[in-house]
Amino acid sequence: MTQKTYSIFGAGAAGLYTAWRLLNGQCKKSKLASKQLKKGDVLELYDWGRYDFSKRHQGTRAAGARVCTWHYNNDKTDSYVELGGMRYSYWNSAPTKEFPDPNNGLAPGHRVVSAVISMLGLEKYSVPFNVTNNQLFYLRSRNFYLNNIGSNTPAPYTVNNFGASTTPDQGFTTVQDLATTKPWDQFTRRDWCRFYQNGRITAQLPAASVFQQGDYLKDIGYWNLLYDQLGAEGFDYAADGNGYSSNVINTHAGVSFNINNEFAPGSQYRTLSIGYSGMFNGLFDEIVKLAKAKGVEFRYHPDTRLHSILWKAGKALFTYAERSNPNIAAGSREADAAWMAMPRAAIDLVAQATRFRAPAQGEVDVLNHEKVNLYLESTIMQPSYKVGMFFDQPWWAPDIASPAPYPAQIVGYTITPQTIAALRTLKFPAATMKAIQTLIDVPYTSVEEMVGAIENITEQALSIAQTKQLAVVSRNNTIGPSVSNSPIRMVVYFGNNAIEPKRKPIYGILASYDDEDNTAFWQELELGPKHQREIPISQDTQPLEGPRKVPKRMVKMLRKMLAELHFGPNSDYTAVPEPLEAAYMDWSLPPFNAGYHEWAPHFDVGDVQRKIRKPSQLIQGADADIFIVGEAYSNDQAWVEGAYCTSESVLNDFFGIEPIIDDREYPFICPEAASDETSEELEKLLRKAGPRRDAEESEAV
């Protein structure tokens, strides 16, 4: 039997997931059985960096590509801060009262990530990652809390129609109301796919509006639409107050409607108590074990990047380069199938190697075909920058001895399986134990609120001693975030989250979580005084090396902005103590050149998702087993879920591997057979609303 070689380029979420599923996936399609890995086959994993996967494969930084858990003193038992992706939306696969059928289209959560965590045996580390419902804001030199915003105490913006008397997210709601078909909370994953293609403005808009009833949202930039509908001040309030600059740029308006549903205060998430990077260590370990058990030769190539790739005579012909000299090919190899588990910028770098030469006889240069180029440009690269700090005290907390004038309202309580286990050892009443089983993962902002919920079920009062015990074991502070329009943008409070109790607790914060233009602000502070730039930014692969120490000038700037956030305008930077340790990740640098991606307007999102994963589909007469997977071209951009889902769809559709979960109501990518139901609903609404009135027509009249 002929030996197969499968090569995966990229050892982040998509690459690891693909390798894992090639080894553990089951195929029931006989015509694709020959594509399954068998004894004697070779599975290669190329890693431009050197991730810290295991004792045998130690590296320079935590596993996970754009996920990077950073521990104090690099001690994995001590407190940590996430300097990349940090959470997932939990999907409960067991029936509940609210969702008796967890596989239906409305059950929330990242289903593939949740399934992977369960299959890897990591659920015991899954913990709530709750968001505060009373954010601290520092906008236009004024400190205030979300719950204080009202008609008598508006935010410092002169928004039309008293918009500053409501929350910043209200601006997103105002724009979303332009295109209602049915309640947004009833939209399934399939509904959103239809909406991306067919969604239109259904509201009658005044002649002064640039956009009018009937306009397709896929052809509108979200920034344009927000500005048109909210005005300058309304746009600034929504942009500043939501914390994410990337959420208000000129992205595909229809997709942005969906994305901006996710970031309302009070949203519930989970993470891993060992750090989110732990999931990728688990995947790597399983890959090694499965390959050995199946007799598949697993080859891990760290410090090696894909340099170029072509297709010829049924093989992927590629050159590779070494990290020490990444622009010059060090050798060539071939594979029966190849996966580019990498984002847009890294793919473009590979394409450049063969862009300016004509393919030889029989070669297919997949990446440089015009239609492929067009589809690759359908996502917008969004740079991001994150700075972490560790302190010996939680100076931002509201319940310390001498709190700051504007502490983060992060105190929270959550009943978890670990809480229940602790209460059993304390001999809590049976009625109470039964009641709290129904309140798992519900976030509470006070002990009184939590106790009230329990007593409302049991109709029995807890004793003072029991209340104190419950408060101790259920304490689970939220992560904030606090929001500023200064370049720190958002602050996330990780606190003392060490998995092992320490004599000296360490408290961590993400001191700056920003994106877009703000990344350049911090980048210019990286070198410090009397330093000339020596490494071209285009060749600075810091994200592969790992967190880099923050220089003194940057620390001082961060302390200055944190002081304004928590102590008020013009506060001296010394109000914030010197950190014990500080480090940054500049995700605007190669090879990622972006922290995350988002869809551009004027594209059929579903068609791009289906075609770009096997780009030879866009080239007439070509059929190359070269695949593109990752979050950049997914339904869940900026999430690990997106990387997993695109990878899963390739394995299902081109290798016959059975879906990892029931995907009938949870398509991994937008399906081709999306019906025109949404379009029909829109047509009915438009006819009901009356004839379209174009601004141009009105002005002509």
Topology:
Layout: E1 5-9, H1 13-24, E2 42-47, E3 51-52, E4 61-62, E5 69-71, E6 80-82, H2 111-119, E7 126-128, E8 136-139, E9 142-145, H3 170-176, H4 189-198, H5 222-242, H6 253-259, E10 270-272, H7 278-294, E11 297-302, E12 304-312, E13 315-322, E14 331-335, E15 337-341, H8 344-352, H9 370-376, E16 379-382, E17 384-391, E18 413-414, H10 417-425, H11 430-436, E19 443-444, H12 447-458, H13 464-474, E20 482-484, E21 490-495, E22 507-515, H14 518-523, H15 542-545, E23 548-549, H16 552-567, E24 581-586, E25 596-599, H17 605-612, E26 626-629, H18 640-655, H19 677-689, H20 695-700
Helix pairs in contact: 1-7, 1-18, 3-5, 4-19, 10-13, 11-12
The portion of residues forming beta strands comes to 15-25%
Mean pLDDT: 94
Structural class: alpha/beta
> Oligomeric form of this entry?
single chain
Span between N and C termini?
77 Å
DSSP, total strands: 26
Main beta-sheet annotation: 8 strands, mixed
Helix content: 25-40%
Radius of gyration: 26 Å
Residue runs with pLDDT of under 50 for 5 or more positions: 693-701
Strand order of the largest sheet: 9-8-20-21-22-17-24-23
| Approximate shape | globular
Number of helices: 20
